[in-house]
Amino acid sequence: MLQVHQLSCMRGDRRLFADLDLTLAPGELLYVHGHNGSGKTTLLRALCGLVRAEDGYVSWHGQDIAELREDYARDLLYLGHKNGIKGDLTAVENLRVCGVLDGFPLTERAAWDALGRIGLDGHEDLEAKVLSQGQQRRVALARLLVNRAPLWILDEPFVALDVAAVALLQQVIRDHVAGGGLVVLTTHQAVELTEGTVKQLKLGWRD
Amino acid sequence: MGVFAWIVKRDLMLALRHRADLFTALFFFIIVVSLFPLGIGPEADTLRLIAPGVVWVAALLASMLALERLFAVDHADGTLEQMLLAPQPVALLVLGKIVAHWLVTGLPLVVVGPVLGLQYDLSADALGVLLISLLLGTPALSLIGAIGAALTLGLRGGGVLVSLLVLPLYIPVLIFGAGAVEAHIAGLGSDSHLYLLGAIGMVALLLAPLATAAALRVSVE
């Protein structure tokens, strides 16, 4: 269970949000809305522990993530704006390195399978820098297929994807939530996510 | 294969696919060391006198030259964030990166240093001491330099700042590294210098990965 207690974040001198409380239980998805600059990415990074909050804290199963550190990292998969893949490595090598860094090492065979499922047939052993934007995003998203971390924090996962990939990704997210996983995501695209519990959070909303 | 080995392997693979970066520091080292005999003239006594200092200063500058890229690329493509969110201690991953960095930029200096020393009319024994001093000293340079590279990550003009931060910290390595060869030439024996060089390396090995990991967390924020 992911809990946020009285969280406040600043960027420069500007307060992005303050006194934010929320709870996300297994099988729930949190959909973070907000215009550009409303602090969505900062919130997600604070949930990961990459950004130190001005005030308040985030807890995972009742414990402060600042204390859990590596134990929290084991349960967490974060996908940010940057894909986190190396242009000079092939798709397979990238996925295997990501797997090791996520704590779920996978065999070469499993990496090929995952890349095939995400629609990169025939591109598995090309260097990532020769792939298109959308294909590079798919390499990064292939992590979702091989990862067993319960908590997924996804920042704009649908960017640069084509219709087929968006549909596939939605299905993967739906399955994860249905299987008792937790998902936090932001997106500007209108996407149907799940029939399960979807929580909405609107940042920077002024009526 | 552990995560440490994976990081080393990944960085070595990346270095081999980007050979231009591989050779920059090495060629810089070769050229700087070779310029001095040309500029000062073929006076064997003078050359022998300045050889340890010149080789060591050049090694310092060459290893600093390579520092800027240590974390910059990982920062730009987002893999650094993933490393900070890995379920292993960040210091361990950082140590993996430093080891790979030393193998790529430090080890070639160790190999080439004695060869360049020939230009300075150093005896075979003195060249051997130079080799050992470089072997003990360059890992400390990579370790200490990593702290500077992490602190200046993402800053504009980071390259200049790195040198201001790191060069003062390199001074003990320079003193004992060059001192070892000088002491040997003077007939005093190089042991004490080499022991101290090894001790500096051990302290750096213990503290630098932790300090670098902490600096990276701040820089990525």
Could you please describe the fold and organization of this structure?
- The complex is a heterodimer of chains A (about 210) and B (about 220).
- By secondary structure, chain A is an alpha/beta fold.
- Helices cover about 35% and strands about 25% of the residues of chain A.
- In chain A, α4 packs across α5.
- Chain A is globular.
- Chain A starts with a strand and ends in a 5-residue tail after the last strand.
- Chain B has one domain (about 1-220).
- Chain B is elongated.
- The longest helix of chain B is centred in the C-terminal third of the chain and has 30 residues, at about 190-220.
- The model of chain B has no long low-confidence stretch (mean pLDDT about 90).
- With about 220 residues, chain B is mostly helical.
- Chain B contains nine helices and no strands.
- Helices cover about 85% and strands about 0% of the residues of chain B.
- The interface of A and B includes residues 49 and 50 of A.
What secondary-structure arrangement, pairings included, does this model have?
The complex is a heterodimer of chains A (207) and B (221).
Chain A: E1 2-11, E2 14-24, E3 28-33, H1 40-48, E4 55-60, E5 63-64, H2 65-68, H3 70-75, E6 76-79, H4 91-102, H5 108-117, H6 133-146, E7 151-155, H7 163-178, E8 182-186, E9 197-202
Parallel strand pairs in A: 3-8, 3-9, 6-7, 7-8
Antiparallel strand pairs in A: 1-2, 1-4, 4-5
Helix pairs in contact in A: 4-5, 4-6, 5-6
Chain B: H1 3-17, H2 19-40, H3 44-65, H4 69-77, H5 79-84, H6 90-117, H7 124-151, H8 158-185, H9 191-220
Helix pairs in contact in B: 1-6, 2-3, 2-6, 3-6, 3-7, 3-8, 6-7, 6-9, 7-8, 7-9, 8-9
Notable characteristics:
heterodimer, A: 207 residues, alpha/beta, 5-stranded parallel sheet, 9 strands, B: 221 residues, mainly alpha, 9 helices, 0% strand
